[in-house]
Amino acid sequence: MLDPRFNHAVAVAHAGSFTEAANQIGLTQSAITKSIADLERELGYSIFHRTARGVVMTEQGAEFIERVKRLLDDVRELFDRGAGPKDPFAKPLRIGVCPASLEWLLAAPLAALLARHPSIKLDVAGGSFERISQLLRNGGVDVAVGFEEAFSEIGGLKREPIAALRTVLFVRKGHPILCRKKITGAILAAYDFVLPSFSRPFAVVIQALFEEHGLPWQQHVHTIDSFSIVKRVVAASDVIGVTTVEYAKSKAFSTIYEQVPGNLLFIQGPMCCAIRTRWEVSPPVREFLYMIKKALPAELAS
User: Fold this and answer.
1) What distance in Å separates the CA atoms of residue 236 and residue 63, rounded to the nearest whole number?
2) Does residue 15 contact residue 57 with C-beta atoms inside 8 Å?
3) What is the pLDDT of residue 75?
4) Which of 111, 141, 153, 160 sits in a 20 to 30 Å window from 3, CA-based?
5) How many Cβ atoms sit within 10 Å of the Cβ of residue 232?
6) Domains and their CATH numbers in the chain
7) Mean pLDDT per segment of 10 residues, for the chain of length 302 residues?
8) What pLDDT is stored for residue 266 in this prediction?
9) Which residues are registered as beta bridge partners of 193?
10) Which of 71, 80, 21 is nearest to 48 (CA)?
11) Residue whose C-alpha is closest to residue 197's, from 248, 131, 138
12) pLDDT for res 82
């Protein structure tokens, strides 16, 4: 069996405190505290930051907890298989989305998935490409959704194409760039950009834009993986943002923002679902792949 300290660590992560985790497990707080301290000492790094209000996972701790949760679920699944016929969909489905601002793409496919298989338990995590790809490699998520170009750089993955996400540049109403008769690369490079991620396909395009005009791109790019924050930043400044064609057509968009005329940079970004080649594809993952391929072309149609 797995180390019981794994269960203790997951309980603390869920509860946010040693005291609450101890109550849930049925141990004393001192026992849980010692268990986690011993585990951290053996690992060589801290899983949690201790604060007056409880605990917060460290970056390494978050990755560790994700892997441990997968291991614990896999062990439970092995025992369930030995107990006789079971519902093959009655298990967690962990989905990573990168960048997190694309989580809205999952609304329709996940609603359809749960309607068809209500026993599936969803666990959806959004984050940077670096974090989600690491979780995928470590087994912290079963499937990752993102730009195919970004995942193409990682070995050991199978990529399932799902749809092409069309993106445009946008600015606030009254932005100086909207007064230009013709917008060139030099004009774009005069403004800062805000991106959801500095991975492909964004990185290559934006980096090339600034380097072509002799500018250090690092000094001109904000990376914010929350679209609600991106909208606030764009509305309050001359920063240029990136959004989807679909959102640019909405009434909510047109009241505050305008699309930058022309199509100098962006790009139709093919999306994919990435899974590990060496892991068996579970029934929930297989059904999710079917649902997202079925739903997204309609979602992204012009």
Assistant:
1) 35
2) no
3) 77
4) 141
5) 12
6) 1-86 (1.10.10.10), 87-164+270-299 (3.40.190.10), 165-267 (3.40.190.10)
7) 86 88 90 94 93 86 84 74 68 88 87 94 86 80 90 88 87 96 92 85 86 93 88 96 86 93 71 88 92 75 43
8) 61
9) 221, 240
10) 21
11) 131
12) 59
Output DSSP code: residue 142: S
Q: In which residue are the tokens 């749809």 written? A: 163
d(CA 101, CA 105): 9
H or E segment at 150?
A: helix 148-151
Q: How far apart are the first and last CA of the chain?
A: 53
Residues 293, 160: contact at Cβ < 8 Å? yes
| 48, β-bridge pairs | 57
Side chain identity at residue 260, one-letter code: V
pLDDT of 167: 83
Instruction: Give dist(CA 95, CA 186) in Å, integer.
Output: 39
C-alpha to C-alpha distance for 24 and 44, rounded to whole angstroms: 27
- pTM of the prediction? 0.68
